[in-house]
Amino acid sequence: MTTSLPSPGSSARTGRPTSPLGLHRVLDPPGVLPQAAWWLDPSPAIAPDEVRVRVDRLNLDAASYRQLRETYAGDPDKIRAAVLEIIATRGKMQNPVTGSGGMLTGTVEEVGPGSPLGLAPGQRIATLVSLTLTPLLITDALRRWDGQSEQIPCAGHAILFARSIAAVLPDDLPIPLSLAVMDVCGAPALTSRVVKQGNVAVIIGAAGKSGSLSAAAARRAGAGRVIGVVPTETEAALLRETGTGLVDEIVIADARDPVGLAEKVEKAGGPADVTVVCVDAAGCEGGAILSTKQGGTVIFFSMATSFSAAALGAEGLAADVTMLVGNGYVPGHAEFALDLLRTTASVRNLFERRVES
Amino acid sequence: MTTSLPSPGSSARTGRPTSPLGLHRVLDPPGVLPQAAWWLDPSPAIAPDEVRVRVDRLNLDAASYRQLRETYAGDPDKIRAAVLEIIATRGKMQNPVTGSGGMLTGTVEEVGPGSPLGLAPGQRIATLVSLTLTPLLITDALRRWDGQSEQIPCAGHAILFARSIAAVLPDDLPIPLSLAVMDVCGAPALTSRVVKQGNVAVIIGAAGKSGSLSAAAARRAGAGRVIGVVPTETEAALLRETGTGLVDEIVIADARDPVGLAEKVEKAGGPADVTVVCVDAAGCEGGAILSTKQGGTVIFFSMATSFSAAALGAEGLAADVTMLVGNGYVPGHAEFALDLLRTTASVRNLFERRVES
User: Is the pLDDT confidence value at B4 over 70?
Assistant: First the structure.
């Protein structure tokens, strides 16, 4: 699927042919991607490949909410007015200072006949693409929001493009739990693609949300040994208590110390065929590379990863390792991660401890 | 090969068992990797898996040389004294301000019986690992250096570890040309691993050094179509003049404009199975992702790549692409790149125009 293949139809407001990426909804500046746009068209009429969602909740990105709260000294009326103003002027919720957005939940209202998303009216969904590129219109002035948290109950609608990502919220799990799983669902999906039968998998940050799911995914993919790295005895205890089977060995190590980490991983049965970096700490690149076999693979899921530290680190260590940028999108990732949670008691235990229901 | 497998022998000065990574040469702080160390031991006596090189030239990293020149207002004596001081106190040439090093050329002097590097005394080599991790001792006070360029003629010695990387300088090519090829040799080697028979390959920055080598590597790997992206008509003319066969199509586009780039690439026969980013400009992540097929691969070689822009960009575009951090080390990369230069007239033409001999 590519940008310039027009879907049938065109936008009345911009006159541009409808595009799977939503280019036809971009009002200003014209020709850029919706995420880069200042102003999107949130009109409710959908193109043949679009979906309209009745929104019931916005989940602001933590950085965005913090900036708003600090700017307005926690005054709820001012924070509410600021968010309304952003959505009204931009046609999307993208904080102009932080550049970040968040996600939303809602109910599918109308599905265009050409939409490839597989949604049906009445389904409760969460969007897995950012609010920064999602056309949004609010109709209740955010009246029910107290401005005290990044969770905004609201009424209005949002538009999904052909290439948006949304996941149906399952009936059998509490919504906060499902959202927490969906938030990190790219990690287990990519881990599952990369790990092969009999591999040694090292999960750095194994007691965390993306880490525990990645450990379960490595196991299901046939890993012969799963080594979980955690920073402290507290985290190790948490991992031990959640039950058996998630990891074969627990290593307590500072992932920012390459030599120390690699030595401990080796004692635990390493080095790894596949190392998955799931901790949001800077400076873990060298340790991950050094804990991985020549010919192995490192998957970086931490947003604190430095591209140059990874590239130069591998060169400096003469490490012939494949290094993957953890792509948050793999088809079917949400369903896969939810299934891992349902079928792996230890993962579910960990999530229930970490997520407020 | 892993860290804690000790090579036979140990360092007299640190008492640590010799390690393929050179941990035994780290004087301060103990236990860190040589690159992270403040002070290395450059003693000439080699461990069984080490190699000693008689150094004839240092090539300072551009950022490091610029910092020195600016700090000392271009005064040659002060610049020379500063570099000598760094090497004498640190046992390596790592600019403490920029953190960067450079590389060196020299002649192999002594090879330990356990060295896996395949070198023999008398060979002229270049190091392909950074000076920031190479033990170095200077014996001529840099007397022959005028301080006016980052090229430092000198006398002294350097130590290579088992896991260092060095390449023999070929007799049939001018040294500056060989060094320019070796500087970017990771890109064609990794491109060659990833591109499959019949693939569409898009090379962003195809008229540059790493770009032209990557185009030649894609061709040799069996690419059915090679599309070269360049930023200007001047670069396009350069690519056209170098002769036929390097690329099938030339696209002039701003790689920082995702929609514009993807549309032009598609008209030229894209989207790509494999996109290789070889331009050192920030903001090319989205364009590279959008120019690549679902299921395709993007290889990022630009040090200006932003990890988070790549990860979030792919997610925002619902792009199921594999994204690789361009590892500068692939076994045999220097020989492979030199061979491409020798056998591809267009690459050689381009390099000869870009490299001062």
Answer: no
A316/B165 Cα distance (integer angstroms)? 9
**Residue among B23, B263, B318 minimizing CB distance to A259:** B23
Q: Are A319 and A292 in contact (CB under 8 A)?
A: yes
Residue B40 CA to residue A117 CA, distance in Å, equals: 58
> Beta partners for A291?
none
Between positions 157 and 176 of B, the ones with CB within 8 A of A are 163-165
Closest to B135 (Cα-Cα) out of B223, B21, B3, B221: B21
Q: Give the best residue of A190, A259, A263, A293 to mutate against chain B (max B CB count within 10 A).
A: A259
Q: Compute and round to an integer the Cα radius of gyration of chain B.
A: 22
Which among A21, A186, A303 is the nearest to B308, CB-wise? A303
| Contact between A303 and B306 using a beta-carbon 8 Å cutoff | no
Assign residue A71 a region (left: φ > 0; alpha: ψ between -120 and 50; beta: otherwise): alpha
Predicted complex ipTM exceeds 0.85:
yes
Using CA atoms, how far residue A191 sits from A185, A202, A223, A227, in Å, is 10, 11, 11, 14
Contact B316 A129 (CB under 8 A): yes
Separation between Cα atoms, residue A48 and residue B277, nearest integer Å: 35
What part of B 258-287 touches A (C-beta under 8 Å)?
Answer: 258-260, 262-263, 266, 270-271, 286
Task: Find out whether A17 and A7 touch, Cβ atoms under 8 Å.
Answer: yes
Higher pLDDT, B220 or B14: B220
Tell me the per-residue pLDDT of B235-257, one tens digit each, with 9 for 90 and over: 999 999 886 789 999 999 999 99
DSSP A72: T
Chain B, 312 to 351: residues with Cβ < 8 Å from chain A are 312, 314-331
Alpha-carbon gap, residue B216 to B214, rounded angstroms: 5
The reported pTM is: 0.90
The strand ranges marked E within B128-168 are 136-138, 151-160, 166-168
How far off is chain B from A248, nearest CA to CA, in Å? 21
Helices (runs of H) and strands (runs of E) counted in chain A: 11, 14
